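User: Hi! I'm working on a homework problem where we have to compare a predicted structure to a textbook description. Could you give me the structure for the chain below?
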Amino acid sequence: MSIDRSLGDDERVVLQTRPHVKMVFVPFLVLLLAAAGVVAALLLLPDNDSKTWLMLAIGVVALVVIVVWSLVPYLRWRTTSYTFTTRRLITRSGILTKTGRDIPLFRINDFTYERDLLDQMLGCGTIVVSDATEKAGVLLYDVPRVAEVKKQLSELLFKADDGSDDGEFPPTDPRNGRRR
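Assistant: Happy to help. Predicted structure tokens:
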């Protein structure tokens, strides 16, 4: 999750995280069940000539199941990151095709969070960040320690506030010829 190469000279990382580990719980169970299925087939199938072909078919199916429902979700979780710096929110994700979005803090005009019962028990939640652009808000799914992240994001936004409500000007730019 190294993002340091893209930081500005006086920019620093305040918080960097990936989605909560709950995202890989079901893929881990699928991996265990697929492995158990292969072992059970080895032990329970009678020894005869068709066992080789049947085991090959079971192995191929198990491999496809493991790749599609275990490996891909794990890699998706592993390559997703949410980074808050002193200047912006940086999201990155993608296994083969990398996608990302950078939102300057001064453009963020609202954020909310959602937590269902499981999220409350695990201490995670989804943060919805709205900015002063035409684009849809950014959803940060399954953020661990969401209450702490929400607090840090609030503090960052108040530090980056330029005094306007529109997100039009960076904090260091003069506003429409007005004096500070």
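For your comparison, note the following. The chain has a mean pLDDT of 88. The two ends are 38 Å apart (CA to CA). Good luck with the assignment!
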